[in-house]
Amino acid sequence: MKIKVLYFARIKEAVNYSSEEVDLPETVTSIATLKQWLSLRGETWNRLFNSEQVVRAAINHTLVDNLASIQTGDEVAFFPPVTGG
Amino acid sequence: MKILVQSEDFDVSDELNLLRQSSSNIGAMVSFVGLVRELYEDAIETLTLEHYPGMTEKSLHEIAQQALTRWDVLDVTIIHRVGTLRLQDQIVLVAVTSAHRHNAFLACEFIMDYLKTQAPFWKKERTQHGEHWVEAKSIDDKARQRWERKN
């Protein structure tokens, strides 16, 4: 299943790019499993998704939790807690 | 409803005049302006705001719509700036009109509390000692959560 993944703020700086198209294996169907799968990419990614710093997620511009399921063509975004206003 | 995300500055007086002229039923207009302020521990040089184009506008629309549904308010304007700002610059304007002040005060505060915890903006401060991302504050989450208990 192909999806688009976006990164913002300190997460974008850590991974060093802002977006990518990824082709997910069948086992990756939710935000939680996507985080686990991305964590396997190496030290930076593992630290990003498994530290105490909170990583929030959105699917198609809506904030979601770890249990949210991912569909083909979705735009998934990862970012730190927001600090606007 | 007017929702804008822009790098340019805004004129509060112009925005309030526009809003005021939108209906003859307006008896109260409440506005909030957020500014870039000095830090206690360090001198701030610039504040840069990043956002998630598309989601930001959607999020602000949803927050304004919730306020319109929840209180008897007539109209809402939200303008939020992005890009690099300096000390004392305007960051955000929220303005609400209603027949009576009570609803306008509540709706304006509700919008700011939700904006600060839900809308995808991120602040990065630059001081003479370098750059750092601003951490989210739990006091802002608590401010939003108190609206969930009511109603």
Furnish the topology, listing elements before pairings.
The complex is a heterodimer of chains A (85) and B (151).
Chain A: E1 2-7, H1 9-15, E2 19-23, H2 31-39, H3 43-50, E3 56-59, E4 62-64, E5 75-79
Parallel strand pairs in A: 1-5
Antiparallel strand pairs in A: 1-2, 3-4, 3-5
Helix pairs in contact in A: 2-3
Chain B: E1 2-6, H1 12-20, E2 28-35, E3 44-51, H2 55-70, E4 73-81, E5 83-85, E6 90-98, H3 101-118, E7 121-127, E8 130-133, H4 138-149
Helix pairs in contact in B: 2-3, 3-4
Describe the protein.
- The complex is a heterodimer of chains A (85) and B (151).
- Chain A is α+β, with helices and mostly antiparallel strands and 85 residues long.
- In chain A, 28% of the residues lie in helices and 27% in strands.
- A 5-stranded mixed β-sheet of chain A has the order 2-1-5-3-4.
- In chain A, α2 runs antiparallel to α3 (43-50).
- Chain A is globular and about 35 Å long.
- Helices cover 36% and strands 35% of the residues of chain B.
- Chain B has helices at residues 12-20, 55-70, 101-118, 138-149, and strands at 2-6, 28-35, 44-51, 73-81, 83-85, 90-98, 121-127, 130-133.
- Chain B has a 4-stranded mixed β-sheet, with helices on both faces. Chain B has a 4-stranded antiparallel β-sheet with strand order 5-3-7-8, with no helix packed on it.
- Chain B is globular and about 50 Å long.
- The mean pLDDT of chain B is 95.
- The chains are: A alpha+beta (85), B alpha+beta (151).
Strand order of the largest sheet of chain A: 2-1-5-3-4
Q: H/E element string of chain A?
A: EHEHHEEE
**Roughly what is the average pLDDT of chain B, rounded to an integer?**
95
What distance lies between the first and last C-alpha atoms of chain A, to the nearest angstrom?
Answer: 37 Å
Q: What's the Cα radius of gyration of chain A?
A: 12 Å
Indicate the structural class of chain B: alpha+beta
Counting DSSP E segments of at least 2 residues, the number of strands of chain A comes to 5
Strand content of chain B: 35-45%
Distance between the termini of chain B: 23 Å
State the low-pLDDT regions of chain A, or none. none
